[in-house]
From TrEMBL:
<keyword id="KW-0560">Oxidoreductase</keyword>
<dbReference type="InterPro" id="IPR057326">
    <property type="entry name" value="KR_dom"/>
</dbReference>
<comment type="similarity">
    <text>Belongs to the short-chain dehydrogenases/reductases (SDR) family.</text>
</comment>
<dbReference type="InterPro" id="IPR002347">
    <property type="entry name" value="SDR_fam"/>
</dbReference>
<dbReference type="GO" id="GO:0016616">
    <property type="term" value="F:oxidoreductase activity, acting on the CH-OH group of donors, NAD or NADP as acceptor"/>
</dbReference>
<protein>
    <submittedName>
        <fullName>Unannotated protein</fullName>
    </submittedName>
</protein>
<dbReference type="Pfam" id="PF13561">
    <property type="entry name" value="adh_short_C2"/>
</dbReference>
<dbReference type="GO" id="GO:0030497">
    <property type="term" value="P:fatty acid elongation"/>
</dbReference>
<feature type="domain" description="Ketoreductase">
    <location>
        <begin position="13"/>
        <end position="186"/>
    </location>
</feature>
<dbReference type="InterPro" id="IPR020904">
    <property type="entry name" value="Sc_DH/Rdtase_CS"/>
</dbReference>
<dbReference type="InterPro" id="IPR036291">
    <property type="entry name" value="NAD(P)-bd_dom_sf"/>
</dbReference>
Length: 244
C-alpha cells in the first residue's frame, strides 16, 4: 500500500501567525521560530517577535489580507501553515450590546479567519499540502454571560474548520481548532484577585495555562505526527470544558 502522506520540506516551513505580537499569538510564533521555520506575523501596530517577518494587516480589510499574503509569499514562499489567532472582544450583556459590538467582533474573529483561510488555501492547493489552525476558545463551547458576540465568533470557527477539513482533505490539507481556556496573558492580568480565584476554582487543574502550553498544541497540529488529524477541536483548558 502506498503512503500518500505529503511531507513538508525539512529546511523550514512558511508559517503565518496572525495577531502574533502578544499573548498566545506571540508564544505560537516564537515556538515556530525555535523549530527553524520561516515565520511571518501580522499585527496592526507592530511589535512582532524577533526572528519573524513583521507584516501590518487588518484582517477586516480583504485588500489588506491579500497584500499581506503577497508580501509573505515574496519573502518566505507560499504559506504552508496558517494559524488564525487575531481576535478582539467587546463584552457586554446582550441587552446592552450594540450592532457595532456584535459586527466588529464577528468581522474580526470569524470573517477575518475566513478571509485568511480562503487566501491561504490557494497556495496550499497548489502545494498539495497545508495546515490551517484556528484559535478558538473554551467560551465558544460553554458560552459566557456578557460574551454573546465573542462566543458566537469562536464557536463558528469549529464549523468552518470542519467544513474546510472535508473540502480540502483530498489535497492533504488539514483544518483544526485549538480551544484554550484561561491563559496567563495581558488580557487576564487585568482581572481582580477575586475574579481570578473564581475562575481558577472552576478549572479541574486549578491553575491558568501558560501561553506556551497553547503553542505546544498548535505546533503539534502542524507537525508530521498530526498528519492524520483534521476537523478536530483540541482543548487546552485544564479540563474546564469537559463534556461540551
Amino acid at each position: 500500500m502506498s503512503d500518500e502522506r505529503q511531507q513538508a520540506p525539512q529546511e523550514g516551513r512558511s508559517v503565518l501567525v496572525t495577531g502574533g505580537n502578544r499573548g498566545i499569538g506571540r508564544a505560537i510564533a516564537e515556538a515556530f521560530v525555535a523549530q527553524g521555520d520561516r515565520v511571518a506575523v501580522t499585527t496592526r501596530s507592530g511589535g512582532a517577535p524577533d526572528g519573524t517577518l513583521d507584516v501590518r494587516c487588518d484582517v477586516t480589510d480583504p485588500a489588506a489580507v491579500d497584500a499581506a499574503f503577497a508580501q509573505i509569499e515574496a519573502a518566505h514562499g507560499p504559506v504552508e501553515i496558517l494559524v488564525a489567532n487575531a481576535g478582539i472582544t467587546a463584552d457586554t450583556l446582550v441587552l446592552r450590546m450594540s450592532e457595532e459590538d456584535w459586527s466588529s467582533v464577528i468581522d474580526t474573529n470569524l470573517t477575518g479567519s475566513f478571509r485568511l483561510a480562503k487566501r491561504a488555501s490557494k497556495g496550499m492547493l497548489r502545494l498539495r499540502r497545508g495546515r490551517i489552525i484556528f484559535i478558538s476558545s473554551v467560551v465558544g463551547m460553554l458560552g459566557s454571560a456578557g460574551q454573546v458576540n465573542y462566543a458566537a465568533s469562536k464557536a463558528g470557527l469549529v464549523g468552518m474548520a470542519r467544513s474546510l477539513a472535508r473540502e480540502l482533505g483530498s489535497r492533504s490539507i488539514t483544518a483544526n481548532v485549538v480551544a484554550p481556556g484561561f491563559v496567563e496573558t495581558d488580557m487576564t492580568a487585568v482581572l481582580s484577585d477575586s475574579q481570578r480565584d473564581t475562575i481558577r476554582a472552576q478549572v479541574p487543574l486549578g491553575r491558568y495555562a501558560a501561553a506556551d502550553e497553547v503553542a505546544s498544541a498548535v505546533t503539534w497540529l502542524a507537525s508530521d505526527g498530526a498528519a492524520y488529524v483534521t476537523g478536530a477541536v483540541i482543548p487546552v483548558d485544564g479540563g474546564l470544558g469537559m463534556g461540551h
